[in-house]
Amino acid sequence: MPVRLPYPQLRAFSTKPRQCAKFDKFELYGGRPIPANKQRLIPTSGSYPQGFTVGSTRAGIKPAGNIQPDLVIVASETPASGAAVFTKNEFCAASVSVSRELMRHTNGAGLRGVVANAGCANTLTGQAGLDDATAMGREAARCISNGMADNGNSLMVMHTGAGAQRLPIDNILHHLPKLTKTMGNTHDHWLDAAVALSTTDTYPKLISRTFSLPSASATKFSLAGLTKGAGMVHPNMATTLGIICTDAPVTPPALQILLKGAASRSYNCISIDGDTSTNDMVTMFANGAAASPDQPAVDISPEPSVDFVAFQQVLSEFMADMAKLVVRDAEGASKFITIRVRGSPSYDAAHHIASVISRSVLWKTGIYGRDPNWHGILAALGYSLLDTSFAGQGIIIPEQTSVSFRDGAETVKFLDCGVPVPVDEVKIKQIMDKEDIETIVDLRDGTAEKPTEEAVYWTCDMTHDFISMNSGVEIR
Amino acid sequence: MPVRLPYPQLRAFSTKPRQCAKFDKFELYGGRPIPANKQRLIPTSGSYPQGFTVGSTRAGIKPAGNIQPDLVIVASETPASGAAVFTKNEFCAASVSVSRELMRHTNGAGLRGVVANAGCANTLTGQAGLDDATAMGREAARCISNGMADNGNSLMVMHTGAGAQRLPIDNILHHLPKLTKTMGNTHDHWLDAAVALSTTDTYPKLISRTFSLPSASATKFSLAGLTKGAGMVHPNMATTLGIICTDAPVTPPALQILLKGAASRSYNCISIDGDTSTNDMVTMFANGAAASPDQPAVDISPEPSVDFVAFQQVLSEFMADMAKLVVRDAEGASKFITIRVRGSPSYDAAHHIASVISRSVLWKTGIYGRDPNWHGILAALGYSLLDTSFAGQGIIIPEQTSVSFRDGAETVKFLDCGVPVPVDEVKIKQIMDKEDIETIVDLRDGTAEKPTEEAVYWTCDMTHDFISMNSGVEIR
To answer: By Cβ atoms counted within 10 A, which residue in A136, A342, B399, B470 is the most buried?
Structure first.
């Protein structure tokens, strides 16, 4: 039976000793056991981009008693190209305003990286909050310049955590000099940074990979990405953040377009609870440190280079992997759901349909009960394009719509060109019992000349645990 | 701890003896006890419009074992004006297609009423389903014409219940003649009809009232309304239906505009789970039976009459009361939430903002935990107008936004013109412990020349019980 906890119920942060966060054995994460199905997602090593250093420390921003690090700097040793995508929420955090202004000012040229904190979202704090975010960015920039005077316009700022609270800015300013003295580029430095970004995450989120570019196939470039779990923290707001670094050379305009393009196929294709955070922000930095002197920078002008096209592919896949790590840690979720909408005349229409399905609370609750609930998919599909620019274009035609669930190579159809199909209940049970579930909505099944655009969305189920975590009402 | 029930989990309909549904003591509703806070919502008498008869019977459409009635006719004894508003879902039920076609054919003139069933939604059944719905409408029309030949174009059709199943049309056709022999206009006839429309409802939904029109202030007209609970039935779809009858005289074009206008301020202002059903439909009939022979019909042409304006007000309030009955029976809900958005330059913008807030799963989950979670309101507000026609019009200005919760005459502000306000925790606890909660978002607080448009939305909280009901995963 649900039991009401004392009001107001703040979610407790963990209080275990710092060394637990080292993950040597991946047993405990900030004092909580890491779920068995999450341990495989934590890397034990990585290939990190050259010329970047990373540091983190505990500055007392996360609640007292929590001993996880909560302050992070990720910085290039040399000026780098920078890019960012921001939440469009009109009540955005100070970090979003300050970083957006930095991008406007610099056009992404000559940046060094980002300073981020978890534990305080710095929203609804007015001019004082903006001043705090600015001071945090400037002091961090001064510190990584070895105390040299800096114009303060080289580091972006990120916040995540509880909203409507001022940053403990004195703590932050006090800890930044020490933090910069411990920066480095080892696996532990990166993993600790991922820990520092965490709030309600059940595991730290870090990936890295190497790649090459067509113009320099012998050169090994690296990509590293830090991110954090989505969902809003009861009773305040958390967020999704992403930090991506590469040692490939990319011009600022190309980097911005690459990031935006990859975000549209990754971070913009995930939904946990359908709410858009005030703090969401993904940044990327490219310093070219792994390039030979004659290596041309990846560029978009006067036209997209071959390297640009290749890198867009690499980055999109990389960021999709980062975004999936976020969904895998959705609050209270028991399933990882892939929604594939195909047969659309445009990517945007398919993406919008997938996004509406991903927000169907009824459908996601059904999946929790291991019910494919394909009627719920159709109900969502049936209203997905109402009041959008796609309405009235005949994109959804019931008689051409098929819905199926996929399990590896095998596909089980529930609806075939608008007609319900008898299904093998045993097979369905096998599919629905799995953690990973994929559903396919084909808008033009069985038609000869078929539009081919396809969009993929990743989401999770809606569970009793989600309600417990976000209401503070616990099941006992 | 949540325990998974055997798959697939169909929600059981009740199996108690028929007489329980009579409600003499309001103790049991189809075998389930009526929640104490719902009993006051069931009328013990009513003032029903003249010239209408109502009948219901069990035709075996609800699952076997259920002995509630499941087939209803509401009919005017004489040809009446008819109007309807329909779901826009592209996978609409056969009833919606058939009734929409009837409206197109007749323009709402010469209608008799509606035949409705619960227990089967008749969705995804193709031409056969359309044929069934047509046959149901024609046979019911034939029966209420005392077996006389009828053109079959006088009754609308409504379905609610499980989707993707054929209607048991033989049962329906078999029971219609008997049903029409028992029709009448007593309180019990109307209440039984409300029972018949129910699916997962915890109580039947019926209201009635009298009113007068400016042109005939001595004449007593009546309005009666039947409706049913919202939310989708696991594992299939249920819906909201509404049937409204009046003995005032109204022309068909006026009736359609009145119904649409009132629906926009009632049924279009409620949200349970954010999903749009395939079967939603509200119909209205006006037969003028209470009017004296010289009473002019309420008309819109050549311009809205005084009676039209007065009746619009009466009908809007009446349908708002019907819609609130639906929200009060939201699946698993523990709170009835009113969202009031004011200070908007347009009603539509305020309505859209309220609708987005009403769909914030995080906010509604917080309310379940008795947390005002006003950050959640702001997060929803902050993204509410993105990608809408209202974007970029400066409707949302953080520095002019206030958020408060109201308890009777008293208002507790959480945000005052963009600035968080210290609040009285004891007072907040009092407010949040109540079943009825009202939140006010003022878009232009403290400004001199203030836009005055205001929209109201009614919704509920998101609870463990909602998850249990829609997943089949029960808490033990």
So the answer is: B470
